[in-house]
Design brief:
Layout lengths: L1 H30 L4 H4 L13 H10 L17 H29 L13 H23 L7 H9 L5 H7 L3 H15 L3 H18 L8
Length: 219
């Protein structure tokens, strides 16, 4: 029963974080002239349109995951390198803004749970959802900002790099997913939270900045 309740508490924040992330990609791409996401039915806040089964399961299991990438056609852009960089940043940026919103709710309504196991009342469940909303959005944002393909951070890096390095970066891009998967599985096998070691300082800092407390411990 406790596992079911925990699932019901964490599911809405995860679905919300994935949805606003992908919607932001499509919305900014449309603003730069690319209607691909809209034509594919991805410019929507319906989470079912964005879910990737494996990525969603990974989010529930290890709090790191992904949604179906929003289709983007850079040929619609006036400046493909620059515009693609902003489209890529839109997803993590939307998650940071969402985390900021949750942080304001926590800070101004003084919603600081004394422990992570507040499940005895409806109020406690709502507080946990809000806390998870902040933390999950921060995790999703900074995970995607890691500059390893196919994460958004790699496309942002590609837009910043001098043009002469673009071909080399594109050649390295094919190895990115294997590197990312390798880091995850090596960390799990050695019981060393490699990715969490990278992400936790950012999650802790911004949760404290937005909500007035380090809420990463509530995961």
């Amino acid at each position: 029963m406790e596992m079911i309740l925990q699932f019901l508490i964490i599911a809405p924040p995860i679905l919300f974080a994935l949805t606003v992330h992908e919607y932001a990609h499509g919305w900014v791409a449309l603003k730069f002239g690319d209607p691909t996401a809209k034509m594919a039915g991805r410019l929507t806040l319906n989470p079912l349109s964005h879910l990737d089964p494996i990525g969603t399961i990974m989010l529930f299991l290890i709090h790191l995951g992904w949604a179906k990438p929003v289709p983007v056609n850079p040929y619609y852009f006036r400046d493909p390198r620059r515009d693609m960089m902003w489209v890529s940043f839109a997803g993590p940026g939307a998650n940071i803004l969402a985390a900021f919103g949750f942080g304001l709710i926590i800070r101004f309504l003084n919603l600081f749970p004394a422990n992570p196991d507040l499940q005895s009342s409806l109020f406690g469940v709502i507080v946990q959802m809000i806390v998870f909303g902040l933390v999950i959005n921060l995790i999703l944002a900074f995970f995607n900002l890691i500059p390893i393909p196919p994460l958004d951070g790699s496309k942002i890096l590609a837009g910043i790099l001098p043009p002469e390095y673009e071909e080399l970066f594109m050649q390295l891009e094919r190895f990115g997913p294997f590197l990312l998967i390798g880091i995850i599985f090596i960390g799990r096998a050695l019981h060393i939270p490699i990715l969490w070691g990278i992400l936790s300082p950012f999650v802790s800092f911004f949760s404290y900045l937005f909500a007035g407390a380090d809420l990463s411990r509530f995961l």
